Amino acid sequence: MKNKNVYDKKSSHDAPITDTEKQVLDLVVKGFSGKEMADKLFVSEATIKFHLNTIRKKKGF
């Protein structure tokens, strides 16, 4: 049996950005507030915060 090592797992930094996360990033760059992004994408502000946190984790920020 091969020993599993935590370092064998892919880091979240390797995870690709989803289409929705790209939409959120595009709106961030355009200067939209969290509420404005939520309204535009028909989601809650909490969902926008979730996407932003996921992006930060994926990119190591």
UniProtKB/TrEMBL annotation:
GO terms for molecular function: DNA binding. It comes from the Bacteria. GO terms for biological process: regulation of DNA-templated transcription. Residues 10-61 form the HTH luxR-type domain. Keywords: DNA-binding, Transcription, Transcription regulation. SMART domains: HTH_LUXR. Pfam families: GerE. This is Helix-turn-helix transcriptional regulator. The lineage of its organism: Bacteria, Pseudomonadati, Pseudomonadota, Gammaproteobacteria, Vibrionales.
